[in-house]
Amino acid sequence: MADLLSDEEIEAQLPADWERDGDEIVRTFEFDSYLPGVGFASGIAGIAEDAWHHPEITITWGEVEVRLTTHDAGGITEKDTDLAARFNDAYE
Amino acid sequence: MADLLSDEEIEAQLPADWERDGDEIVRTFEFDSYLPGVGFASGIAGIAEDAWHHPEITITWGEVEVRLTTHDAGGITEKDTDLAARFNDAYE
């Protein structure tokens, strides 16, 4: 099982444009319309399935909010920061 | 613009398995694993785009929560109950 990260480790490892929100890390990805956000959500869901680490993804018009936490560790681990970085790569 | 529904109209028109939550109607659709839920979310997003009425869709493992409201009317209208019924059809 992945180890919980310390506050300092989270701050150091948090990928660009992600923020910590308690036991989760969160980023809102922005899009010019609805379906591009839906497509992005599907794409990162595939990455998540590949990593077997499943975020909460909320789709609204022009925005996709992604929240990551490691439930079995009870907080934020490298599984979260690593997957967040892969999601960033998919967005660029 | 669609007219706001009265409490009685909402109760009468709410499709199966949907609940009212203040100014929104909500249903959680259930799946046996992650990607089937993701695929369902993409499918109903296409229906939403077709209707030009965009729900909030939240994907987690095995569940897709859908929330509908009519922002420009400030509450629940037939646009919401009609689209909810179409989402139910897509789930069956």
Please describe the topology of this protein.
The structure is a homodimer of 92-residue chains.
Chain A (H helix, E strand, L loop, with lengths): L6 H7 L5 E3 L2 E7 L3 H18 L4 E5 L2 E6 L9 H14 L1
Antiparallel strand pairs in A: 1-2, 2-4, 3-4
Helix pairs in contact in A: 2-3
Give the low-confidence spans of chain A: none
**What shape does the CA trace of chain A take?**
globular
Arithmetic mean of pLDDT of chain A: 97
| Main sheet: strands, sense, barrel of chain A | 4 strands, antiparallel
SS element count, helices of chain A: 3
What's the quaternary structure here?
Answer: homodimer
Instruction: Evaluate the radius of gyration of chain A.
Output: 13 Å
Number of domain modules of chain A: 1
Please provide the ordered H/E string of secondary-structure elements of chain A: HEEHEEH
- Straight-line N-to-C gap of chain A: 30 Å
CATH architecture classification of chain A: 2-Layer Sandwich
**Class of secondary structure makeup of chain A:** alpha+beta
The biggest chain-chain interface is: A-B, 17 and 17 residues
Helical residue percent of chain A?
40-55%
Outline:
Two copies of one chain form a homodimer. Chain A is of the alpha+beta class.
Q: What does this molecule look like?
A:
Two copies of one chain form a homodimer. By secondary structure, the first copy, chain A, is an alpha+beta fold. Chain A contains three helices and four strands, in the order H-E-E-H-E-E-H. In chain A, helix 2 runs antiparallel to helix 3. The longest helix of chain A has 18 residues, at 34-51. The A-B interface holds A 34-35, 38-39, 41-42, 45-46, 48-49, 54, 56-61 and B 34-35, 38-39, 41-42, 45-46, 48-49, 54, 56-61. Strand 3 of chain A pairs antiparallel with strand 3 (56-60) of chain B. Chains A, B: Keywords: Lyase. Chains A, B: Pfam families: Pterin_4a (PF01329). Chains A, B: It catalyses: (4aS,6R)-4a-hydroxy-L-erythro-5,6,7,8-tetrahydrobiopterin = (6R)-L-erythro-6,7-dihydrobiopterin + H2O. Chains A, B: GO terms for molecular function: 4-alpha-hydroxytetrahydrobiopterin dehydratase activity.
